[in-house]
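Bug #2210: token dump truncated for F-box associated beta-propeller type 3 domain-containing protein?
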Amino acid sequence: MCIYRRRRLRLVCRHWRNVIDERTPVRLGGAKTLAFVNHRPTGSAAYVLDDLVEGRVRELWSSASNPNSLYSHMRMVGTCNGLLCLYDESAGDIALLNPVTGETLDVPGPPSHRLRPQGAFCSAYYERFSFAYHVATERYKIVHLALNGHTRAMDVVQVLTLGADASWRNVPAPAGSSCCPLFGVVSDGQATYWISDDANMLMSFDLTNERVAPVRSLPAPGSKFGISCLRKVYGRPCVAARTYVFLKGTETEEMWLLERGGWLGRERWHRRFYVTGQVSIIPPLVQRVMGPHFVQGEHILTCCPGSLYAHRFVSSVAWPQCRVVQIDEHW
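Reproduced locally. Full output below:
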């Protein structure tokens, strides 16, 4: 990367270096929703939602304010502690962005990294990365699921720990490992998670031991899982099982949260959210649950092109163990 494309580590302020090299900033207040919008007519932008009920929104950063056209090709990999990890679709490199200060940090892509064709039936390459904050070491990590060519077989996981001596390391994956990146890749403070290509198993990469291992089989048949079905809520992985009722024109999503506890502290799936709504005859106008984070306070967030919606939870006798949302479409 040329130095004029993004400011390198030595050019950023001491506070920014400390954020990356030392520890996470102290949380002084409740978390707010941060939305990253890709490929608007004027490029990409990051917003913070100050008040969901009143719809107060602030723009934190926009690629339109940067003269370099490369920023319009950025897609978000993930966010931790207010920092954004972005993937450059034009070059295959990675940048960390502080949307408050506008400062960026260049991170080279993994060794032997090659861009893949972005065809209609190909998963976007940025979906194979995840950005994580490792609680045990208080360091940021970027995880890359290195799929084998155009297949979904995975031989290694590549990981980079940010810091002065940052470099990519290859961690062998067990024989037969695979990933369907269309389902999504998410991280919490302990591991990075993805779904196997056969839609049967939740897999993980432990950020402490740096090992790949199966977690649990999924709580519903593989046919019910679709694009971006792997999400996060309350800092834990969550999968959405979708069901269409053609005669009624309805669609439901049962959200299963992976929780720790019970006998021997094993992780188990618990159905915690139930979302139902009408299916529009115009597919682009259908509201979709946002991802990877979709819960903010007492609301579930949905979106359709150009709009963001917040739906309040309601009580339900039929689903007493779930937080229920009825999506009402307004056209």
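Output looks complete on our side. Helices lie at 14-21. Marking as cannot-reproduce; reopen if the truncation happens again.
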